[in-house]
Amino acid sequence: MTNTALLVMDLQQAIASRVPDPDYVPRLAGAVRAARAAGLPVVHVVLGFRAGHPEGHPRNKTFGALPEGAFTDQDPGAAIVSEVAPEPGEIVVTKKRVSAFTGSDLRLVLDARGIEHLVLTGVATRGVVLSTLRQAADLDYRLTVLSDGCADPEPDVHRFLLERIFPQQADVLTIEDWTKTL
């Protein structure tokens, strides 16, 4: 499995704080610990902007409407949740849009390490997970989505994506079932 990486996406204070399930972050932290114990790279993907948000176009309903200073280096809400924070040597990739690939060097980092299989986790299922899955599939990565390693504010949307959409392009496993394969 040395060609596999666990992607922990958008686990930033301002985003993860909106997840209603109090067990979500501890559960995801267990997946991160399991990946580390198995020697798999853990790649942290975060949303980040320069001061003044020059990357945020006004036509973009999501990012054009962010308040000044949101997801900049000075924003405490941009910090990665401590339970899944990077260990020394782990890669943090900064993205500028919903997909982990858009506006980031993620593909370069993965290709340089020979990564061919991505295990996706993050908030929100309908946002970063869906967008990254679709782009990664088009880039010919093998994909696994950890169903309980993703969260979405709308349970029906989360369930629909995991049951109906994601299986068309990825294996969908629970964290427990995935860790048994390590």
TrEMBL record:
<dbReference type="Pfam" id="PF00857">
    <property type="entry name" value="Isochorismatase"/>
</dbReference>
<dbReference type="InterPro" id="IPR036380">
    <property type="entry name" value="Isochorismatase-like_sf"/>
</dbReference>
<dbReference type="GO" id="GO:0016787">
    <property type="term" value="F:hydrolase activity"/>
</dbReference>
<dbReference type="InterPro" id="IPR000868">
    <property type="entry name" value="Isochorismatase-like_dom"/>
</dbReference>
<dbReference type="InterPro" id="IPR050272">
    <property type="entry name" value="Isochorismatase-like_hydrls"/>
</dbReference>
<feature type="domain" description="Isochorismatase-like">
    <location>
        <begin position="4"/>
        <end position="177"/>
    </location>
</feature>
<protein>
    <submittedName>
        <fullName>Nicotinamidase-related amidase</fullName>
    </submittedName>
</protein>
<keyword id="KW-0378">Hydrolase</keyword>
